[in-house]
Amino acid sequence: MGCLRGSQCIRNTPRLLIVLPSMSFGHMTSRDKLESIATNLWWTWTPDARSLFRRLNPEVYRASDDNPRAALATAKDEVLNDSSFQDDVDAVYQRYRDYMERTPQVEDAPETAYFCMEYGLHESMPLYSGGLGVLAGDHSKAASDLGLPFTGIGLFLREGYFRQSFDADGWQEATYPVLDPAKHPVSLVSEGGGDPLTVTVPIGTHEISVRAWKVALGHTDLYLLDTDFDANPDEYRPLTRRLYQGGDHERIRQEIVLGIGGLRMLRALDVTPDVYHANEGHCAFLMLELLRERLAAGDDVAEAETWVRDRSVFTTHTPVMAGHDHFDPDLFSEAMAGFRDEIHLSNHDLLGYGRVHTDDHEETFTMTVLGLKLSRAANGVSELNGHVARQQWEDLYPDRALDEVPIDAITNGVHLPTWTAGPARDFFADHIHVDLTEAQDPDDWAALADLSDETLWDFRCSLRERLLNYVAEKVQAQSLPMHLDLDPEALTIGFARRFATYKRAPLLFRDRERARALFSDADRPLQILYAGKAHPDDDAGKEFIRRIYALSQEAGFEGKVVFLENYDMEMGRMLTSGCDVWLNNPRRPLEASGTSGQKVAAHGGLNLSVLDGWWPEGYNGNNGWAIGPEPTGDYGTADPEVQDEQDAASLYRQLEEGVLPTFYTRNDDGLPTDWIDMMREAMTGVPAPFSAKRMVLDYVEEMYRHDG
Ligand SMILES: *Cc1c(COP(=O)(O)O)cnc(C)c1O
C-alpha cells in the first residue's frame, strides 16, 4: 500500500485553519466514499486512490483505461464488504477531505482564468495530443495544490486523442473512440440545475450555441466547451470534437469557440478573474472579446486596449515561425464577420491586432501577434525558448534591442504527484519520511543523497523490473507484433514522445552498423523502448515509426529494440519511472521545453539529451549527458543535415564512452557506484526546480500579480 501513514507523509502541508463543523462520515458507505472520490480528478494523482478502484474490479478497470466509474459500476461485493478494504477507503477518503479543506498556500493570489486548447489530465480522458496538453493539465493540478483561485477553459474533445494501431507493415492507423460523458467525471453545466447553460458565438454570419462540461480537478474547476449538440446545424457540431484537424477554415472556427465562447461562458458562470492567461495562441481571441466588452461598456479604443493589456498574459511555445497559427486575411474577415458587427471596429483595425505590420494588406492574421499585442506580459517556456521567441518577434518592437523584446521565460515543470510512480512515493516516505511530491522545500530532496548505494540501486532496479513487466503485458495486447528479449538487469533506454520528425526518433540508427554493435555487445547489454504517435496527416512521422518497427525485426536489434503501441499518459508514467536513461534528440531549437525528461529524475533516471528546451538549465555535468554542442546565439540557422550528423556522432560517443561504461563498471558488490552518484545528482537537484509547483509559483509572481 502507499502512503497511508498519516501526518508523517504530509509534513509541511499547512493544516486546516478554519474549524469546520465536525462531520461524521460514519453514515457513508465505502461505495459512497468511492463515488465521491471518483467525481474529482484528485484521484488521478493519488496512487492509493487509483489502487482502490483497481481492487474493485481489476479487469474492467484496466480495460477502461483506468476509469473509476467503470470499476464502480462492476464492483465486486466481496471487495466492497471486506473490512480491510473499507479501512483503506476510509484512509483515502480522509486524505481527500484534508486536501479539499487545506488552506491556500499563496497569499492574495490574483484570481486567474487559464485558457488552453488541450488538457492532459489522465489516460481515461483523452483531451490532449501532446506536451502542450500535459503541461496545461499539470499547471491546473499544481494551481489546485497551491489553492489558487483558478479556473480553466478548454474544449470538450469527444474524439480528442486517437487510438494508435498498425497494419501488417507497421503503418500507423488511427481510430477515434468517442468519450461518453456518462462514463466520466464530467457534468453538464446547467442554469440553476435546469437547462444546460449556453452562450452564443458568432461564426461568420451564424450564431452558434456553446455549452460546457465541468471537470473538478481538486480545488480547480475546468470548463470544457462543446458545440456538439442539437441546437447547432450539423456543419458546426463537430467543431469541438477533435484536435488540430481539418484546414484553417475549421481551425479558425474552433478558435473562435475557444477564445470568444470561453470568455462568454466564464461571464455566464459569473467568473470575473483578475487575470486572463492565454496558453499558446489558439485561445488568443479571448483578448478581442475582452476588448469588445470594454468598448460596449463605453471605453474608447485606447482605454479598452489598456484595460485588456492590464489583465492579460500570454505564453508562446512555438519555435518555428510557420508553426504559429495564422490565417489568411480573407478567411479571417469571413469568419469574424459577425463578431466585427458586434465589436464595431473596421476589418482593417481588427486585422491589425494580428499583424506585425498593421498596414501590410498581404500579411496574415497571426494569433501569437494578437497575444503579444494585447497582453501586458509574455513568456516562452524555457530560457532558450524565450530567447528564440525574442528573435522571432523582434520586428514587433522596432525601438527595442533584441534582449529588450518583452518576452520572458518561465521554464515548464511537471506535476510531481501525477508523475511520481506509486512505488517511488512509498520509497520516499519509507526512507526519508517525506511525501516529496508535496514537499514545500527543495532541500527536502537533498536527504536522498544520504541513502546508501545499495538502497538507491535496489530502488532503480525495482522500477526497471516493474516497467519490463508492464512492457511484456502491453506487447501481448498490441496490434504490432513484437518479439521481446528484454533483460531486467540491462541498461534500459526510453524514447517516447510525439513522432514529429524534428524529434528525430531514428537518429540512433543513423549509422546502422555502429548501432548494431552497441546492441550486440553481450558484456554490456542494451535495450531501448520506443513509443509515440505521429499526427494522422504526418506521413513522414509515420514513416519514422515504420522504420523503427522494421529495425525491431532485424538481426542484432530484434527483441531489444521495442516499439510500444498507443503512447498515452499511463505509458508515459511507466516509461519515465522505469527507464535508466531518457533519450531526447530533437533538432535544436525545436523543443520548446519538453517535460518528459523532467519526470524521470525523481525515479533516478538520467537524461541523455540534446541541449534544447529545459535541458540546458537542468544539466549540470554530473546528472546526465548532453548530446551535441552547447547552444549558441544562432538558433535555427544550422544546416539540418550537419546537425543530424554532428548530433548522431555525439550520441554514439556518449553511449560508448559515457553511458555504457558508467552503467557497467561495478564494484565488488556489483554496484555501479559512479552511476549511482549521477542518480543522486539527478534525484536531489532536478525535481524541485522542474516541478509544476515551482512553475506555477513563478507564473503567480512574475505574470499573474500586477501592481499596475
Ligand atoms: C510528459 C508527456 C508529454 C510531454 O513530454 P515531451 O517531453 O514534450 O514529449 C507528452 N505526452 C505524454 C503522454 C507525456 O506523458
From TrEMBL:
It catalyses: [(1->4)-alpha-D-glucosyl](n) + phosphate = [(1->4)-alpha-D-glucosyl](n-1) + alpha-D-glucose 1-phosphate. Keywords: Allosteric enzyme, Glycosyltransferase, Pyridoxal phosphate, Transferase. The modification N6-(pyridoxal phosphate)lysine is found at K599. Its EC number is 2.4.1.8. Gene3D superfamilies: Glycogen Phosphorylase B. Pfam families: DUF3417, Phosphorylase. This is Maltodextrin phosphorylase. The lineage of its organism: Bacteria, Pseudomonadati, Rhodothermota, Rhodothermia, Rhodothermales.
